[in-house]
Each structure stands twice: as C-alpha cells, then as structure tokens.
Amino acid sequence: MKKVWTIGSILTSILVGTAAPVALAAPAVAVATLPVQVEVDGKKVATPAGMDVIDGQVMVPLRWAAELAGARSVKWDASKRDVKIEAPESYESILQLHSYIRLGAAPAEWGTYLCQLPDRMNAIPRPKLSDRALVLDLEIEKLEQMARENKNLPPRREVMSITTQYAGQEYSYAVYSAKFVQGRVYVPMDWLTELFGADVTYDKERGVLAIQFPNLQETKRQIAEIEAGLVPASPDETIALWGRGLQTRSGALIYAALSNELRDRARANLQARNWVTGGSSPHAGKITVQDKKQLDADTWEYTLTYPEVTSGYMANYPNVTPADIEGTCTDKLVVKKQRTGGTEGWFIAEVKQSNEYYGPVFAEKR
C-alpha cells in the first residue's frame, strides 16, 4: 500500500485517536457560531448534524460527502481507524484533466530548457480547476512557523487514515485533523477537493459552504477539447509534446503524443500513477535530439537524450553544476503520420527505448 503524507510527516494536529471514535481530534480553536448552510452543485441541501467551522474550515461528515461525490462504497474499519473509499466514476477523468495543468507557455520559473509547444497549443484553454492551496491539517500554519523558528516540533501520530481505491490500486492518506461525533467521522472541507476533485468554498459572511462536485460529462468534454487541440502537425511537434510531458510529469501530455495502439497499452499504467509520471527530484532536464532520420514519407525515428536532474537544476539553469545532474537517459521513438482519436496527425507509433520512471510502462500487445 502506498502511503501518502500531507505536507510531510511533521504537519497536522497533535491529538491522538485511541479507542472508540468519540472524541474531537482537532486543535482546540475557536468554532464559528454562525450556523452552516450547505449548497451542493448550486442547490441548497439540508445541513448534516455536527458540522461546525474550525479555523475557516468547515468540518464535513466524510461518508455524507463521499456518497454525494458518487463513491462506489464507503467502509469504516474500526480496528485500523481507516475509512476505505472506492473512488467515484469521475475520479479518473478528473486526474487526467488535472494532468493538463502544464499547458500553455513555459512558466518563467522553469527556465528556458522546457520543450516549447507551438502557439496554437499554448492557446488551448487550461483546465477549469481550482488552484487554491488546500488545508488538510488545521495545525499547519503553527507547525510551519515553529519549523521556521527552529523550534522542536511536538510528537504526532495520525488520528485516522483514508484509503482510496482506484484503478486496482490503493492510496492511503494519513489524517491528523478530524473529529468523531456519535460514530460519524468529520474532516476539514478541503479533503473533498483532495479526494473527489470538488470545488469547495466557505463564505464566512453568509455562513454558506458551497460544494461543486465534478460533472463527468463536462470533464470529458474538456479533455476531448484539449486533445483535439494537441494533435501534432509535424514530427517535431510530437517530440515536443512527449518532452513537455516528461519534463512536467504530465501523463496526459505524453498520452496525447501516442498512437491509438500505444494509448491503449499505456492507459492502465497512467491510471495507476494518477496520470503523474516521474518525480520532483530527479526529473527530466533539457531534452536534446541526438539523431533524427526519415524512414519513409510518413515515418521518422528520433533519438533523444536528457539529464536526470535535481531541483537545483531549475534554479541554476543554464549555469548548472555537476551536483545538479544525477544521470542521463535516452529515448528512441518512431513517429508516424496516421489517424488517432479520429484526427490525422503525427503520433508516436513505437517506443524502442525509454525510461519507465519518466514515461509510461506499456502493456504487452494484445
């Protein structure tokens, strides 16, 4: 089981859950007195009992929220203090859509080494997703301040965990801020964004919690619109799309560069990785075309190399140091002119060599 920690193992509330889930497991802070009203997908709904506001976060009953999100099942394991949630149908599409967030002109902080996409691809509207920083731990600000002041951090242990099931995998989150009331588990509202891709806001002046769950058809429409705009018009554009995906850890951009057959063979692996490839360190640096040769009128073969780099590479580029580079990778790709997704363009038809850390793992041919 993969353990996923929220902002590092040092962050979140100190209280420890022990026996039956009956005690408040969140920091002792002021609670809003204004009654919470709830709107879901633009419509007012009955407010569940036990909801209150702690440090600007509405404490939301997890099962209630999961069922509204369309979770296939929600189970509480008292012995492990774990809530197991089978992800809703919309989950995969939301993750794929979120992987397109690196569309557009290369941000300045990435330096000039990022593969450049053509203007028409840069003009594609970015996914309509909230980029608000999430608060999953109500003690985060205090603990970060203590860390900045080099103070000793208190020992902490998770109150409970949340395990999501998706694409045959399980992903476990340590939860430090939660409360338990009459057998119900309540978590900060931002968990609805983390777990279900919901857009969640709280208007403290009106006392209204607004929850907008993903609309599956709208999400698929956005994905189709983006993919239609990402059809490479030349072999070089295909390589730029592949390279941008490697560099920004975007499984969706890599997927868009593939032929129909390779998409079918890569999809399960990209799903299992939440459409995120590679890691923050090392990651793929500047991509160089070492060799390019035409095999026939509609086929080109490329040999690419790129360094495996640390976070210092981005900060120091172009004046990188040996300490910024951990190794070198080589990709060999065959690009063909063909129809993919109903549109003619240039797509990767064969991956002769690649690093499966940065790119997808392809299933065997059927």
Automatic annotation (TrEMBL):
Name the source organism.
Answer: Aneurinibacillus soli
The residues covered by the Copper amine oxidase-like N-terminal domain are: 40-88
Tell me what this protein is called: Copper amine oxidase-like N-terminal domain-containing protein
What InterPro entries would the database entry show?
A: Cu_amine_oxidase-like_N
